[in-house]
Design goal:
449 residues; seven-stranded mixed sheet; binds pyridoxal-5'-phosphate
């Protein structure tokens, strides 16, 4: 294996930053102006987490391309980190939105589209009853409330290294085997011991120990982790997870928000999972804010009476949830873009993208690995695929990550800013994939010079 020198990373970073600043004067000026009015100079603070000294400001996004205000065109593999997984502004969705905008955006009354959407969700995910929310965060929050109501229990078990949105119960992590609040979490003033438990992914023994006291309302988990790099479940993990949750009366809540990348019914359909509750958001309406959560017959029987007869707000849903515009956008997304036909097109390109990275890692003998999950691909600076969040943390290299992103950015490639993750869209071409491979190869070669 070849070693990458720290000094070389620093040297390249300085060069790339210089180039970035030289080529993005208009973004620089806009950032300066924005800082006088927007906290951190952006409308949402994560937008500062891109690799450059300031974010690029966008002129427009179309298909799998983003054009910035300095006139640079990028091949977009970030795709709004999943919100635009099917490309920016797909025509069928734009047409449906345009029509609905003229006929009422939000009435706090159902449209027929919402029934179509519910039926389609049931058909794809095999879960009988559905509710809508605006974001995946909210779908998770509301589902936790339902799980507590259904079980009469307070605690939520999450996987260390997970991310499910700004859900207080899930903003915990394991440090040396002890559960602590995630650093920087501006959480509710509640002792997490009262609300949460955490175990490492793929650790069935710890899971069994944590569920045994029968005080956990639900396990909230991604079926494969995607927010700490991609971490795949061990063979048999999901069977054990299902068996243990059933044995101890805990509901199994699967968050499919990112794993929708596995196919038209997410990981659940692809691998035959059997959750009690399922949550999802982001790309469901091609970027128009919408999320959905579904519950099994068993959970519905336990909560239905309260929800249907409740004269209070129940703490689930909101004024804009299930609005007419979101329902029309979601229907068009399911009908025309989140389709098997598109997956048949995207999957071979995802395989090609993965192979381009894998071949380079092998040829250059760098101690890195690459993992694919459907049409999502991620490489990391460790020699073998991780099995849990702790292994990912042990190999985290912030400077190297920043450099790889910046080298991409300066050469017209956008990757998801938080880690080395890429998504393939229906608009992505073979040429786009090969361009990424060339840039990746060039970046690795520069590091080894
Ligand atoms: C698995 C998962 N669930 C939920 C969320 C929250 O999504 P949103 O920020 O759209 O509410 C995220 C965000 O990254 C996520 O990755």
């Amino acid at each position: 294996m070849r070693k990458i020198e720290r000094a070389r990373i620093k040297e390249l970073l300085a060069e790339e930053e210089k180039q970035f600043v030289k080529e993005h004067p208009r973004s620089k000026a806009l950032f300066k102006r924005a800082k006088s009015v927007l906290l951190a100079g952006v409308p949402m603070h994560w937008m500062t987490r891109w690799a450059g000294p300031y974010p690029i400001f966008v002129e427009r996004g179309r298909g799998n391309h983003v054009l910035d205000v300095d006139g640079h065109d990028y091949i977009d593999f970030c795709l709004g980190d999943t919100g635009s997984m099917f490309g920016h502004s797909p025509k069928a969705v734009v047409d449906a939105i345009t029509k609905q905008v003229k006929n009422g955006i939000t009435m706090m009354l159902p449209t027929e589209d919402s029934i179509w959407v519910g039926e389609e969700l049931r058909r794809r995910f095999g879960i009988p009853y559905w509710q809508m929310a605006m974001t995946a965060t909210d779908a998770n929050r509301y589902s936790i409330r339902l799980a507590r109501e259904a079980t009469g229990r307070k605690k939520v078990l999450v996987i260390s290294g997970c991310y499910h949105g700004s859900v207080d119960e899930a903003l915990v992590t394991l440090e040396k085997g002890k559960m602590v609040l995630r650093s920087g979490n501006k959480g509710a003033p509640v002792d997490p011991e009262l609300t949460s438990k955490a175990v490492e992914f793929n650790d069935v023994k710890a899971l069994a120990r944590a569920l045994k006291p029968e005080d956990v309302a639900c396990v909230l988990a991604e079926p494969a982790m995607t927010n700490h790099g991609i971490i795949l479940p061990d063979p048999g993990y999901h069977e054990d997870l299902r068996e243990l949750t059933s044995r101890y009366g805990t509901l199994l809540m699967i968050d499919e928000t990112h794993t929708l990348c596995c196919g038209i019914g997410g990981y659940t359909r692809e691998y035959g999972l059997d959750p009690d509750i399922i949550t999802m958001g982001k790309p469901l309406a091609s970027g128009v804010p919408v999320a959905a959560y579904g519950i099994s017959q068993h959970v519905a029987d336990l909560v239905r009476e309260h929800i249907e007869n409740d004269e209070d707000e129940s703490g689930i849903g909101g004024t804009l949830s299930g609005n007419a515009l979101a329902m029309a956008a979601m229907k068009a997304t399911f009908q025309k873009v989140y389709t098997q036909k598109n997956f048949d097109k995207m999957t071979p390109l995802a395989i090609r993208f993965h192979k381009g990275i894998e071949d380079t890692i092998e040829a250059e003998k760098v101690p890195w690995q690459v993992t694919r999950l459907g049409i999502r691909i991620e490489y990391s600076f460790m020699p073998t695929a991780p099995r849990n969040g702790a292994e990912v943390d042990a190999h985290h290299d912030a400077d190297l990550e920043k450099l790889m992103h910046l080298m991409g950015l300066n050469r017209g490639i956008l990757m998801t800013p938080f880690h080395n993750m890429a998504l393939i869209s229906p608009c992505t071409s073979r040429k786009d994939v090969d361009r990424h491979t060339d840039v990746f190869r060039e970046s690795v070669a520069a590091l080894l010079e």
